[in-house]
Design brief:
This protein is mainly alpha-helical and 93 residues long. It has one domain: Ribosomal protein S20 (Methane Monooxygenase Hydroxylase, Chain G, domain 1), CATH 1.20.58. The protein has three helices and no strands. Helix 1 packs antiparallel against helix 2 and helix 2 runs antiparallel to helix 3. The longest helix is centred in the middle third of the chain and has 37 residues. The chain is rod-shaped, with a radius of gyration of 22 Å.
Length: 93
């Protein structure tokens, strides 16, 4: 029987560059999302302590981060508005 030779196509430089770019974006998005989730956890801890000044300050920080995330394309617009709405309900309650 003849040997089956599997030829592997050489990857184009554009495909390799695309891989590098997507890895870079994935890491950047991941760090930004973790920053936002840390800010949300800090906000929720201030809600638990019922510190109104800290709540408003941290809510403003979270809203700012979410808006910047939408602008950068990290979060969808509806996710940002839903998150901000849910957190502002916690402040008023």
């Amino acid at each position: 029987m003849a040997e089956d030779k599997k030829t592997v196509k050489a990857r184009r430089p554009s495909a390799l560059k695309r891989d590098l770019q997507s890895d870079k974006r994935r890491i950047r998005n991941k760090t930004y999302k973790s920053t936002v989730s840390s800010a949300i956890k800090a906000f929720e801890s201030s809600v638990a302590l019922k510190d109104t000044a800290a709540m408003k300050e941290k809510l403003n920080l979270v809203c700012s981060l979410m808006d910047k995330g939408v602008k950068k394309g990290i979060f969808p617009k509806n996710k940002a508005s839903r998150t901000k709405s849910n957190l502002s309900v916690k402040v008023s309650a």
